[in-house]
Design goal:
With about 280 residues, the protein is α+β, with helices and mostly antiparallel strands. It folds into two domains: about 170 residues, no CATH class; about 90 residues, no CATH class. Helices cover about 40% and strands about 25% of the residues. The chain contains nine helices and ten strands. The strands form two sheets. The chain has an eight-stranded mixed beta sheet with strand order 3-2-1-4-5-8-7-6, with helices on both faces. A two-stranded antiparallel ribbon has the order 9-10. Strand 2 and strand 3 form a beta hairpin. The longest helix is centred in the C-terminal third of the chain and has 25 residues. The two termini are about 25 Å apart.
Amino acid sequence: MVPLLLSRYYDNYCFLPLYVFCGEQVLVAYLRPAKKDAALHAAAILKLLTTRLRQAWPGVRIIFRGDSGFCRPLLLSWCEHHHVHYVVGMAKNNWLLTESEWWREQAARAFAWTQQPQRIFGEFHYRAHSWPCHRRMIAIAEHNAQGTNPRFVVTNLRDEPQALYETMYCARGEMENRIKECQLGLFSDRTSCNLWWPNQFRLLLAALAYVLLERLRTVGLAGTALARAQVWILRCRLLKVGAVIVRNTRRIRFLLASAFPHQAAFRLAAQRFATG
């Protein structure tokens, strides 16, 4: 099973990066103009990824996860025609609120009785005006001290609503940490050129840096205290280290300070990569 997670980053003025992650591995880092639709070219990228993944693993099960910015008729129809599962957020509207009213009332009553946050799941079939058919809609009726918070997810999976939302859809939240690592930890948000290609190249360099640090974290530091560290922690604590380099005809030696606090992890990672 390969869950593909699509997201974008809004904290800029000129460009809107589109990221695709599979777990902790970045598959796509693509720059678009911010004035375009947030899902611009998402269907084309999903098609390319699906084709390549099925070439490598013909029987792989692909699940596309995305927030409501990717709930587009073209994307959903393409997934259905090419046997790709999807779990995608849906922006609320009056019809959805009316259809889920019973569950929202139940959540409100349960909160009034217990004074504990409530979450009730329901499902129904819904067809938007731009959709060619009815699709399965999961309604999440949440109520707490701040009030009601209805949410909706459209899917072509048959799992139970609670499992679909909590296990499948909410897992996309971890993707935000990966975007933060690329943008803030590796400075891919520095798209200060007024041309597209230089900024796209910067984005690719940051994505390459993320791939290297992800491999360092997953392979080189497995089983250590830094195995789950964010990339800026690895960069500042493990790699940004003063050293004396001694070179002769036979070898190159890096002499680190004996007080370096992470020397054991550094040595372990170096040994693992040196032995392949």
